[in-house]
Amino acid sequence: MTDTVVRASGLSKRYGSFTAVDAVDFSLEDGRIYGLLGRNGAGKTTIMQLLTGQIFRSGGQLEVFGHEPAEHADVLRRLCFIAESQRYPDDFTPADALTAAPWFYENWDAGFAQRLVADFRLPLKRRIKKLSRGQLSAVGVIVGLASRAPLTFFDEPYLGLDAVARQIFYDRLLADYAEHPRTIVLSTHLIDEVANLLEHVILIDHGRILLDRDADEVRGSAATVAGPAAAVEEFVADRPVIGRQSLGGLASVTIDGALDRDDRFAAAELGLEIAPVSLQQLIVHLTGHDLTGPTAEEEAA
Ligand SMILES: Nc1ncnc2c1ncn2[C@@H]1O[C@H](COP(=O)(O)OP(=O)(O)OP(=O)(O)O)[C@@H](O)[C@H]1O
């Protein structure tokens, strides 16, 4: 049986009259990689700040390792939160940040950190405020990985990394997690990139949870049927359609719901191809918009 690391029930955060997190219920289990997904302003960072004791809840209940996080040094010691733009003292170098890290993280692996420094080609002696955006991201990623904190949050710190460096991050994360299982929460817009890492998906929209499910279940919960338009339309006639594309006489339609063996046989009879739906496609459908597009507030402005 897995242990529950986080229990949130009716958890809310209000800023004045604005509700950033609206009575959410969820739990995080030990030894899993979670994707905390949602559009800009959905409430992802606010949830992570609540869980790491950086801000106080306005309502509901929250337990992290069995306690209210903000008031327990013992809980805070087991957490690592890496934000997109980490703040460091002005004259700090990456070498200083790595030297200080074991004071905060009892599982700190200095050898692993050194290997990551080489992987990310991080200049150790340059002042952090002089680093490029990607190098600054690398400092956060290295601290987050080498901390081996039992509950680690990566709040999009890897967005500054180039494609090669991001792939290194995903590879090292997966390999190290396999050897040292812990609970990891990734918040990201780059869903397709991280889709294979995620074991569980929590989708937030307007401070509420739209979806809280195993990633495999989510992937299997819809399918795309493609082929001659007339045959596709015949196949999907009585099914819930969540996306449709057509080109000439060909159509590609995404349907909600898993397909069983009979469905697959019927599709083959009609000469249709069935493909799985990507996590990103499904989430775009569920939130009604492209996650990388403008927010509702921006659209209204
Ligand atoms: N200190 C604050 N005061 C007022 N509103 C705030 C404060 N912090 C966050 N908010 C608002 O709460 C909402 C949720 O913000 P949050 O940073 O959690 O979103 P997010 O999902 O992490 O977004 P992004 O993907 O853009 O980082 C936003 O509308 C934001 O403007």
From TrEMBL:
Alphabetical list of Pfam families matching this protein: ABC_tran
InterPro entries registered for this protein in UniProt: AAA+_ATPase, ABC_transporter-like_ATP-bd, ABC_Transporter_VariousFunc, P-loop_NTPase
GO MF annotation, one: ATP hydrolysis activity
Residue ranges annotated for the ABC transporter domain, each copy included: 6-231
Keywords: ATP-binding, Nucleotide-binding, Transport
Cited Gene3D superfamilies: P-loop containing nucleotide triphosphate hydrolases
Protein name: ABC transporter ATP-binding protein
Species of origin: Orlajensenia flava
Lineage: Bacteria, Bacillati, Actinomycetota, Actinomycetes, Micrococcales
